[in-house]
Write a structure and sequence with these properties.
Layout lengths: L3 E5 L8 H11 L5 H8 L7 E5 L5 H7 L1 H10 L6 H9 L17 E3 L2 E2 L3 E4 L8 H7 L9 H5 L5 H7 L7 E5 L6 H9 L2 E7 L2 H4 L2 H18 L7 E8 L3 E2 L2 E2 L1 H14 L13 H8 L11 H22 L1
Parallel strand pairs: 1-6, 1-7, 2-5, 2-6, 7-8
Antiparallel strand pairs: 3-4, 9-10
Helix pairs in contact: 1-3, 1-14, 3-4, 8-9
């Protein structure tokens, strides 16, 4: 059936989209063998593709480190997601070698090695112009109502990933902080989506509008595109939670309750706490799991990320 595709979506910035994408994708490699049997039916490592669909390129840098990213993308001129979008828009019978844009054996596991079964489809900063390109582009062959004629503008990433879905078990997409064409392309291509948030009043304000908007787009795509399957919300994950005695501090506990009142059991029971473990790992270009033996906060955050991952897998089963 091909990979399960999961988008990490929020139209606010700084809520942990990239952090969650990076750590869920690589966290699968840190599950115990019995957990892999439990969730995947086998002990061997699943195959994962991380897709950076944000012009900030944060996921690409987090996976590779700054020096490696700049060498591969700017000096060696490796192709990125940006190079695949326009050919599809320009050609009804588009064909491209998506596999040539995917970086293999490059996603860092530590300073001593990489993940052999985690690949990266990187971003380029020029992806910032792609939303405008998609918006203004018009195929001369397209006729009909606005949505029916333009629905192909939301199907680009789906067509890109269709070439490689059978090569992976999971595909995680890091989306830009907006609900623009790039994010809606990711949504269209996905089986599921997750919403990260901070336990902050401004962060959760409007969160229900995100759910309403993407559900509205589900309806639009169902009416406009043959064979479309609605994308399901897996839930809302709290990030950077400040704790006191293993519980969210009082002010954040209040926000947590407000959030639960808004979304109910869509709120994940597990969350990720604030700490220097993840930022320290980001600085050197690998996930927090690599620091679990030397940094107590990193160990705690790594355990929390794995708890979020297993809850996600259980929700997918449910």
């Amino acid at each position: 059936m091909g990979a399960k595709v999961i988008s990490i979506i929020n139209w606010k910035g700084g809520v942990g989209k990239t952090t969650l994408t990076h750590h869920l994708g690589t966290g699968i490699m840190h599950l115990e063998p019995e957990e892999r049997v439990r969730y995947f039916g086998r002990e061997d490592m699943p195959r994962v593709l991380l897709v950076d669909s944000d012009a900030q390129c944060s996921l690409s840098v987090a996976c590779l480190d700054v020096e490696t990213y700049e060498r591969l993308i700017y000096r060696e001129k490796r192709e990125t997601l940006n190079d695949i979008y326009l050919p599809y828009l320009q050609n009804d019978r588009w064909e491209s070698d998506v596999g040539s844009c995917i970086l293999k054996w490059q996603v860092r596991a530590s300073n001593r090695g990489t993940y052999p079964t985690v690949d990266l489809l990187p971003a380029h900063q020029e992806l910032i112009f792609m939303d405008m390109n998609i918006a203004v582009y018009k195929r001369a062959s397209m006729v009909g109502s606005l949505m029916e004629s333009d629905v192909y503008k939301f199907q680009v990433l789906d067509q890109i990933l269709l070439q490689v879905k059978d090569d992976y078990d999971f595909i995680f997409i890091d989306c830009p902080p907006s609900l623009n064409f790039l994010t809606l392309n990711a949504f269209y291509a996905s089986d599921y989506y997750l919403i990260p948030t901070l336990l902050d009043l401004l962060a959760i304000y409007g969160l229900s509008s995100i759910v309403s908007r993407v559900e509205e787009m589900n309806g639009v795509f169902l009416r406009s595109a043959d064979g479309y399957t609605p994308t399901k919300l897996l839930g809302v994950v709290a990030n950077n939670v400040r704790e006191y005695k293993q519980e969210p501090k009082e002010s954040q506990a209040t926000i947590q309750q407000q959030l639960f009142n808004m979304v109910g059991d869509q709120l994940f029971q597990n969350y990720v706490t604030m700490g220097d473990g993840i930022p320290s790992a980001n600085q050197v270009g690998y996930p927090v799991y690599a620091l679990s033996g030397t940094n107590s906060k990193a160990k705690k955050q790594g355990q929390e990320m794995l708890a979020v991952l297993t809850e996600m897998l259980e929700r997918m089963e449910g």
